Amino acid sequence: MGAQRLSGEILTDYPRRRNADERASWGTLQALSSMIRVLTHISDCRRLAAGARVVGIAACIAVPVFLLYGTRLGYSPIYLAHDEAIYALCAHAIATTARDVNGHLLPLYFYIGGNFWDTPIGIYSMALFLKVFGVSESIIRTPSAVIGTLDVVLVYFVARRLFASRLQGATAAALLALTPAHFIHSRLATDHIYVLPFVLGWLLCLIAFCDRQRAGALFAGGSLLGVGVYTYLASVVLMPAYLLVTFIVLYRRYGMTPRPFLVAIAGFAWPLIPLVPWLLSHPTQYADHLRMYSLYDSRHLS
Fold first, then answer.
1. 260 in the same domain as 199
2. Which of 107, 237, 241, 268 is most buried by its number of CB atoms within 10 A?
3. Summary count for the chain: helices (H), strands (E)
4. Contact between residue 147 and residue 196 where contact means Cβ atoms under 8 Å apart
C-alpha cells in the first residue's frame, strides 16, 4: 500500500514538475537569447564606432591634403600641358557624346595617335567631373587632386596596420603629402598617379588578410590589382608583378594550400574579362604598347 501511494504521488506530481522544468528551461533560453541580443548590439555598436572612427580619421587627413592639392588648380600650373589637353579633349568627348574623338562608343582604351593608347580610368574619371561640374582648367585637374588625396589617406592606414603605430602612420602620410613629385602630379590632369590607390588598396587588403585570414580581403586585393591594369600603361606589367608578390606571401604563410591562391587569381582575373574581346578586336594595341616602351621589336617573334 505504501509503495502504491508513493507511486501515485510521483505520477501525480510528475506533470507539475515537468511543467516547472519546462518553464525554467524556457526562461533560461529567453535569458540566453536576451544576452545574445545585447552582446550582438554591443558588437554592432563597437563596429559602428570603429567605422565612424575610421571615417573621422580619413576626413581629418583628406580635408587639409585636398585643400593643399586642390587650391587654385586653374592658375598653377599656369596652363594645360600637352598631355592634359589631349586627355581633356577625350574626356569632354565622352562627357558630351559618350564617344571618343574617333567616334568609338565608350571604348575600353583611347587611341591617341602613333603607338599611344591611353588607359580608361583617368579619362572616364575626368569625364564624370566634366559632366557634373562643367569645363574649366580647375575641373579638368580636380580628379588628380582627389586621387592624390586618396593616396595620402591610404598610406596612413597601410603604415598604421603595418607598423601598429598611429604616429608612424601619420608620419608616412605627411611624408607622401609633402613629396614634391606626388604633389606636382596631383595637380596635373594626367594618369601618372592613378595606379597608386589600387596598389595601396591591394597592400592594405593583403595586410588585412594576413591578420584575419578572411578570403574576402584577399579577393578584394586581387580585384584591385585587376582593375589597376586599366590605370596606367605600365600597369600591364606591374600588376602581375604585385600578384606574384601576393603568391610569395601566401606561399610563405600557407605553403602550397591551393585555396588562397585560387581566391587571389579569381579576384585578379574577373576585371580583365573585358580586355579579351577588346584585344581580339584591336590586335595592334599590344604591339603598339611594346613598340612604345621599346621592349623588343614587336614586328618579329624573335
1. yes
2. 268
3. 12, 2
4. yes
Three-class SS state of 228: helix
- Domain end among 130, 157, 190: 190
pLDDT values of the chain reduced to their tens digit, one per residue, 302 residues: 544 454 444 445 544 545 555 555 555 556 545 545 644 554 455 555 666 787 888 899 999 999 999 999 999 899 999 999 999 999 999 999 999 999 999 999 999 888 889 999 999 999 999 999 999 999 999 999 999 999 999 999 999 999 999 999 999 999 999 999 999 999 999 999 999 999 999 999 999 999 988 999 999 999 999 999 999 988 988 999 999 999 999 999 888 889 999 999 999 999 999 999 999 998 888 777 777 766 666 566 44
* Beta carbons within 8 Å of 129's beta carbon, 6+ residues apart: 139, 140, 142, 143
- Is residue 121 in some structural domain? yes
Same structural domain, 213 and 186: no
Q: Do 177 and 108 touch, CB atoms closer than 8 A? A: no
* Same domain membership, residue 134 and residue 81: yes
140 & 227 share domain = no
Evaluate whether residue 52 is within a structural domain: no
Residues 138, 207: one domain? Answer: no
Instruction: Return the closest-CA partner of residue 235 out of 111, 122, 81.
Output: 122
The residue among 9, 66, 290 whose CA lies nearest residue 187 is: 66
Same domain, yes or no: 201 and 179: no
Calpha distance 219→213 (Å, rounded)? 11
Is residue 143 in a domain?
yes
**Which residues span the domain enclosing 102?**
72-190
All cell numbers assigned to 180: 614634391
Residues 129, 213 within the same domain: no
Q: How far is CA 217 from CA 162, 202, 211, 224, in A?
A: 15, 9, 10, 11
* Tally of structural domains, the chain: 2
